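Minutes, project check-in

Agenda point 3 was the complex the collaborators sent over. CS summarized: two entities, 256 residues total, and the question is how they sit relative to each other. Sequences were read into the notes so everyone works from the same version.
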Amino acid sequence: MRTSTIMNLAAASAILMGAALLYSLYSLPRFGSPILDSANYILQAAAEKTGAANIVCSIVLDFRGYDTLGEATVLLTSVLGVFVALAGREKGREK
Amino acid sequence: MMSPIVRTSSKLLFPFILAYGLYIVANGHLTPGGGFQGGVVMAMAFYLYLLSFGHEKTEKIYDEAKLSITESFGSLLFIGIAFAGLLLGFKFMGNWLVKGTLFDILSAGFMLPLNFAIGLKVAAGVFTIALLFVIFAEQAPKVGEEKTEAIQTGEEDQMIE
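CS then shared the predicted structure for the full assembly.
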């Protein structure tokens, strides 16, 4: 396909997606309505279910512990990325 | 290599910063803090040593191999604690230690060892990144030296041809 056709298609699909997202605004809860169900459950049950006084820590390590595993992996990957990006440091040391 | 005042005071401050970082990690389930925040503070103790002594003296004690082993050990400890829950009958990452009374230091199940594993990993990782940047910066050519002039004369020759 030519480039102009592809760009026309991309613009049309972007406008369609924008219209669909705007339509979904009607089903959001009112501004200032009470807290979400999941957040309410965590606030009530964190102290007795986990035994931790710090609710943020209980969310990070107990209710959503799987995401912390992903975060630790991202740290590992970032150190690897710095090793690769600064590969020129070896040339300087061998001199 | 900085002046003797900076070097002496950084040697004096090193254990206090490390102890403060360990305090933040260990009280992660009681006060604000936890593994990530305390890990960065612990890495800053080593970074103070690196800045005042230069990277060659620091590499004799903490070279990249030791740091890499420490970071991998922290990550494996995290996965091991999470996996032990699976072997003991809970789900993967289920809380399998005793939940003591609230506000005790030994409460909240497995959060204390998990915080220590994350603190170890973050400290080693952040210090490795800092060490790599310092090594790279000390070998970059400075502005106005012969290397940049040589590049300019080479381009001129090719353009004339």
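Noted in discussion: The two ends of chain A are 52 Å apart (CA to CA).
Follow-up: revisit at the next meeting once the mutant set is ready.
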